[in-house]
Specification:
The chain is an all-alpha fold and 234 residues long. Helix content is 72%, strand content 0%.
Length: 234
């Protein structure tokens, strides 16, 4: 009897708790879909939050329930997918794998995600470079810090195994690797060759250079063209 009374009370407003949650989820998906479509078709700069609300069939107040501003809507589109990519990478890291293997594991999902929607990805990466405050931007910052922590953890594994013997703090090394990734993924998207394997291969080349260094006689392993230039025959 008590359970039935609670159920009736929950439904007095015309919908149950479960229905309210489903409605909220439906509105969220419509807002994300509308923002994605308009950002790609009209461009981020020419799209307004009012247009997104109209396309989604919700009020402006509902849009601002999920995102604080237009830039925050970009984070809203990407946050769940990027957080899931970070969780998968965390589960796949291995203290027995090489530093390069672990770093490739961390970055691969990101390349595959951005390859699926290149035009939107370019917008995201442009705005994410100088993100400001907002609920979704703050969520992105947390995922970004977790992502960076995985890179640092990979460096730590390599130090413990004696694979590398750095004179710098692993956190700084992790930050340098992250900076390489930031530049490489933007260059890859700009070139338009959206083969994730090709993008990863280029990033690996840069990371090998970082690992090997530029000291005399230290050529990155795995480079087919790491040989002296040919001179004239004598």
């Amino acid at each position: 009897m008590l359970a039935k009374a609670r159920a009736r009370k929950a439904g007095e407003g015309g919908e149950t708790i479960g229905q309210r949650e489903r409605n909220k989820r439906d509105k969220l998906m419509r807002i994300k879909s509308a923002a994605r479509e308009l950002f790609v078709s009209k461009g981020y700069d020419d799209t307004t939050t009012r247009e997104i609300a109209l396309r989604a069939g919700v009020g402006m107040g509902t849009v601002f329930t999920y995102a604080d501003n237009k830039r925050d809507l970009l984070f809203l589109i990407a946050n769940e997918d990027l957080a899931e990519a970070e969780r998968r990478a965390k589960g796949d890291l291995s203290p027995d794998a090489s530093m390069l293997q672990n770093l490739t594991t961390i970055f691969r999902d990101h390349y595959e995600y951005f390859a699926q929607q290149p035009e939107l990805s370019k917008l995201m990466l442009r705005e994410m470079l100088f993100y400001d405050s907002g609920e979704q931007a703050n969520r992105f910052k947390v995922t970004r810090e977790h992502f960076l922590a995985l890179i640092v953890e990979s460096v730590g594994f390599a130090v413990k195994r004696g694979e590398i013997a750095p004179h710098e703090d692993p956190r700084f090394i992790g930050w340098v690797v992250f900076c390489l990734y930031q530049v490489e993924i933007r260059r890859w998207l700009a070139e338009g060759n959206l083969d994730a394997s090709a993008g990863i291969a280029s990033l690996e080349r840069a990371i090998r250079l970082l690992i090997s260094g530029l000291s005399p006689g230290q050529a990155p392993k795995g480079r087919a063209d790491a040989r002296p230039a040919r001179g004239k025959a004598r």
